[in-house]
């Protein structure tokens, strides 16, 4: 079952444009040793797909990708960025608690756990823009084992339409237990915590040793009343590990749940995307089976009954709820396609738990290249539908 997403086509076109604008630069950042950098990224694509398909079920660090490698980061963005942005944007549509809580706010704080290149931030800021609730001040904290993702984010940020600040801070979701003071202070004020395709990378370690989840439980435990938690990950046999072992034990109410196969809409693709589709002999992911859950921390702000969307025996969508579903705009997204000028805010890397020399830098904005249509091909080695 697909996830019905308002404004799906123009929003997906916007995400295509972002990939078009950044792809050449990301490929150029791959060291030009033998073989060529495109061949290196091609090898990375196959390695990443194989690891995600076969390696995540084992609690073995050797079966995880090295995201300090620019080729791996480039491959990940090419393969997953558009679909992950689309998942986050679509997931925030199905409870009016989100837009109602954030309307007329002067500031918002977002914490992305295992946020990688910033897909969560792109999807979330697109949601804010479409709903006309983008605040004057937006601060984001990305907690990740590989803060070198910051270099990729700088490239992506140069093509965003709004001004906001992003800090990358190093953390290990498996080994760390305590939270650095500056990160904890931010988490306590966060309005939403996102975990998009990051829990599956560590869940096998948590199953093997429950003590390995202390850091994540501490993050959720310190969230303020009313803070949202957005969980998106692969639906592995209807797993409820995150809800059972983490959300329910840290005072979270379920607001919305979806289990199905959200599909990134077809559309016109640029010369750049088609070029690298041919060079890599690979295509961006278009759909996969996921579980989406939106939680809210119990406390002064109370949630209504959860909205659950699933397919029935005939494959039709079914929603069970006693609360009013979000009223989402159906017209063209505001500011999604139009260009906009903005200032350059402070972005930084904080080595919370180890030494990491981070340098902030913002590439110049480039114009979108002409878009052309592309054909549908067969599934990738990850067994996901691709464009």
Structural class, by secondary structure, is alpha/beta
Average pLDDT, rounded to a whole number, is: 81
What integer value in Å does the Rg equal?
A: 20 Å
The biggest sheet, with number of strands, parallel, antiparallel or mixed sense and barrel status, is: 10 strands, mixed
Count of separate DSSP helical elements: 11
Note the gap between the termini: 18 Å
CATH superfamily, by name, is Vaccinia Virus protein VP39
The tally of structural domains comes to 1
The main sheet orders its strands as 11-10-6-9-5-4-1-2-3-12
Bin the helical content.
Answer: 25-40%
How many beta-strand elements? Answer: 14
Biased composition (Basic residues): 361-374
Region (Disordered): 353-375
Keywords:
about 375 residues, alpha/beta, Rossmann fold, 10-stranded mixed β-sheet, about 35% helix, disordered C terminus
Q: How do the helices and strands line up, and which of them pair or pack?
A:
Blueprint lengths: L7 H21 L8 H18 L15 H22 L4 H7 L4 E7 L5 H12 L6 E8 L4 H9 L7 E6 L10 H9 L2 E5 L6 H6 L5 H8 L6 E7 L6 H7 L4 E9 L7 E3 H10 L4 E3 L2 E8 L9 E5 L5 E4 L26 E4 L20 E3 L11 E2 L1
Helix pairs in contact: 1-3, 2-3, 3-5
Q: Could you describe the 3D structure shown?
A:
Helix content is 33%, strand content 19%. It is an alpha/beta fold and 387 residues long. It has a single domain, classed as Vaccinia Virus protein VP39 (Rossmann fold), CATH 3.40.50.150. A ten-stranded mixed β-sheet has the order 11-10-6-9-5-4-1-2-3-12, sandwiched between helices. It has a two-stranded antiparallel ribbon with strand order 7-13. Strands 8-14 form a two-stranded antiparallel ribbon. A hairpin with a 5-residue loop joins strand 10 and strand 11. The longest helix is centred in the N-terminal third of the chain and has 22 residues. The relative contact order is 0.19.
């Amino acid at each position: 079952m697909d996830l019905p997403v308002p404004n799906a086509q123009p929003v997906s076109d916007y995400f295509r444009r972002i990939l078009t604008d950044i792809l050449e630069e990301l490929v150029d950042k791959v060291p030009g040793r033998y073989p060529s950098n495109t061949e290196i990224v091609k090898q990375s694509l196959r390695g990443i797909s194989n690891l995600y398909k076969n390696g995540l079920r084992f609690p073995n660090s050797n079966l995880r990708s090295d995201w300090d490698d620019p080729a791996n980061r480039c491959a990940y963005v090419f393969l997953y960025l558009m679909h992950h942005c689309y998942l986050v944007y679509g997931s925030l549509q199905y409870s009016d608690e989100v837009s109602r809580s954030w309307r007329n706010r002067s500031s918002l704080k977002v914490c992305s756990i295992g946020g990688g290149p910033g897909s969560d931030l792109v999807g979330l800021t697109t949601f804010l823009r479409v709903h006309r609730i983008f605040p004057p001040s937006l601060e984001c904290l990305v907690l990740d084992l590989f803060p070198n993702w910051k270099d990729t984010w700088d490239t992506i940020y140069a093509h965003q339409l709004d001004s906001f600040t992003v800090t990358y801070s190093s953390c290990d979701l498996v080994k760390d237990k305590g939270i650095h003071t500056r990160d904890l202070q931010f988490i306590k004020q966060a309005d939403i915590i996102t975990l998009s395709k990051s829990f599956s990378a560590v869940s096998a370690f948590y199953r093997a040793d429950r003590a390995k989840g202390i850091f994540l439980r501490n993050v959720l435990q310190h969230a303020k009343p009313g803070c949202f938690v957005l969980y998106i990950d692969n639906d592995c046999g209807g797993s409820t590990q995150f809800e059972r072992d983490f959300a329910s034990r840290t005072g979270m109410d379920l607001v919305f749940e979806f289990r199905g196969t959200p599909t990134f809409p077809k559309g016109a693709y640029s010369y750049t995307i088609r070029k690298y589709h041919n060079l890599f002999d690979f295509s961006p992911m278009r759909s996969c089976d996921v579980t989406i859950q939106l939680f809210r921390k119990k406390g002064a702000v109370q949630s209504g009954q959860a909205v659950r969307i699933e397919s029935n025996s005939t494959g039709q969508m079914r929603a069970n709820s006693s609360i009013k579903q979000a009223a989402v705009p159906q017209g063209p997204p505001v500011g999604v396609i139009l260009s906009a000028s903005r200032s350059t805010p402070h972005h930084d890397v904080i080595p919370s738990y180890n030494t990491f020399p981070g340098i902030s830098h913002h590439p110049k904005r480039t114009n979108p290249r002409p878009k052309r249509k592309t054909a549908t091909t067969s599934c990738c080695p990850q067994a996901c539908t691709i464009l």
